[in-house]
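User: I'll paste a sequence; please echo it back and then give the predicted structure.

Assistant: Echoing your sequence first, then the prediction.
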Amino acid sequence: MLQDYIVQNWALILILPAFAISLKTTLFLDKTTVKRFYILLAGIFLLSVVVFLEFALNDRGGYAAERTVLMAVRYSATPIIVAMILYTLVRKVRWYIFIPAMVLTGLNILSIFTGIVFSLDEGGRLHRGPLGLLPYIVAGLYGVCLVFVLYKRSNKLYTEVVPIAFLAFSFASGLILPFIFGAGYSHMFCITIAIGLFVYYQFLLLQGTKKDPLTGVLNRQAYFADTEVNPDRITGLVSVDINGLKEINDRQGHAAGDEALATLALCFLQAAGPGQSVYRLGGDEFVIACRDASREDVLSLVDRIRKNADATAYSCSVGYCHADDRCHDISGMLRESDRMMYAEKARYYISSGKDRRRRTRDST
C-alpha cells in the first residue's frame, strides 16, 4: 500500500519538501506566516493520505464504515485547508474565518450516522444527502473570498494579478474537475492546490524586492522604477502622511506604530482601484500613483482614503495633484501633492494642539 501511495503522489512528495525548504530560507515572511505555511503543508499531506486510503478501501470492496469516516474527514478537511490558505496569505484575518468550516465538520460527523451530507449503500456506492453539495459550496466560497481579498489588497499591477489568477484557476480546477472527470480526479486535488500555492509563493518571493515588508505596499525603489516607465500615463499623484505617528511610537511603543502603519496602508490598498498603485516612500509617507486617471478618478480615490481612514483609530493628511494642474512631470506633481498634504497636516496639528515635527520629503 505504501508503494501505491508513493507512485500516486510522487509529485506531491517532491513539491512539499521543496516548499518547506524554501520557507526555511526565506527572508521576506515573518515567523508567524512561515509557521502557518508549515501547518498548511502538513494538512495537505495528511489530506492526501486520507484520500488515498479512502479510494484504496473502495477498490478492495467493503469497508463501508471505514470509508464513511474517511469521507467525513475529506469533506471536512478540504474547506479547512482553503480557509487555512486564506488565514496564511491575508494579513489581519482572524481565527473566526474557520467557523463555517467547523460547522461543516460537525455536519459531516453527523452525516456518518444520518446521511445528511453523504452516505454509502451496501454496494459501497456514494449517495449525496440533502446537504450533499455543501462541502464544495463552502470550499468554493472560501476560494472566492481568498481571491477577492488578495485582489483588493494588491497594487492591481500585472505582476500581482497574474499569480492571483493562477491561484484562482488552481482552486477552481480542484473543485470543479471531479464533477467533470469523475471522483478519480479527487486524487489530484492535493497536488493541484500544492502547485498553485508553490507558484504563488514563488511570485511572492520575486515581489519581495519591490514591496515594503511591514505594510505590503510597494517600496521606495519600486516607486522610482515604476514612474520612469511610461511616465506620461501617470496623470495623478496622491500624497498621504500619517498624523501623530511619532506620538504613538513615543507613548505606546514602536509595535503600536507599526500597527498604525499597517492598518492605514491596508486602507490605502483597499481604496486604490485599477491603475492605482500604493507606495511607501519612507517612515509614514505614502504616495499613490494613478495611471490614465481623470481628475474625478483622483478625487474619488481621495474620498475613499478619507472614508477608510475614518473607520480606524488613526488619521492621515492627504494631498493630490492631477496632470491638468499645470504640473508637467512626475516631480512637479509630487511637489504639488506634497504641498497640499503638508498644508492639511499643519491644520491638523494646529486644531489638535500638538507639536509638529518639520520634515521635508526628498522627491528626487
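Residues 31-60 form the longest helix (30 residues). The chain has a mean pLDDT of 89.
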